[in-house]
Amino acid sequence: MTIAPDDARRGTHLYQVMKEFVQSTDDTLPGKFEITKEGIVLDMMSPVKPHELTALRLRKRLEKVMPEELVAHTGEPDVENEPEGILRRPDVMVIAEADMEGDGSFDPHTLIAAIEIVSRSNPDNDWVSKMRDYPLLGIPTYVIFDPREGEGAVLSDIHSTPDGPRYATRKDFVYGEDVTIGEWTISTDGLPRYA
């Protein structure tokens, strides 16, 4: 689809308005706001122990097997592609420590992998929206851990489709199996489930 210059300016303006709103709500409203192709998404989940414990255990396990210059980051800033109008904050980001330097959002092309732990309140955000947005951002590997069912999926190999970039390869796993994220294999033993 071709966008005329006036439409492009309106799209950029709308994205900037949404971004300013999201930034103004940091630490003032519950939940986590992100910007997708459809608009602003609010994940109302407040951090629950199984979610946060999963992120911690994944971070520690990955950092044991990755080279020292790589990190499994579990915080801010966001990952942003302004031309696409997308602002996301993965639960865990595999990235080179050197690519974390400087100001502003992370460049999505510097991420090696994005990892999400599915929330109880909005599972479609991880299983549908992010499955669409992350290949569009160029993130080579997207991993979903779902504490609701004790299962997940590793998505990789971005390819073009009529609906835009998508992951071509999906490897499902259940908790208790080893999972390979990029070049590194970790255990999923002992990951908590939602009660």
From TrEMBL:
UniProt keyword terms in alphabetical order: Endonuclease, Hydrolase, Nuclease
Q: Select a single GO molecular function from the record's annotations and give it.
A: endonuclease activity
Q: What SUPFAM superfamilies does this protein's entry cite?
A: Restriction endonuclease-like
Q: Does the keyword Nuclease apply?
A: yes
Classification via InterPro entries: Nuclease_put_TT1808, Restrct_endonuc-II-like, Uma2
Location of the Putative restriction endonuclease domain: 20-155
Q: Which residues form a coiled coil?
A: none
Query: Which is an annotated Pfam family here?
Result: Uma2
Q: Which CDD domains match?
A: DUF820-like
- Spell out the protein name for this chain: Uma2 family endonuclease
Source organism: Streptomyces mooreae
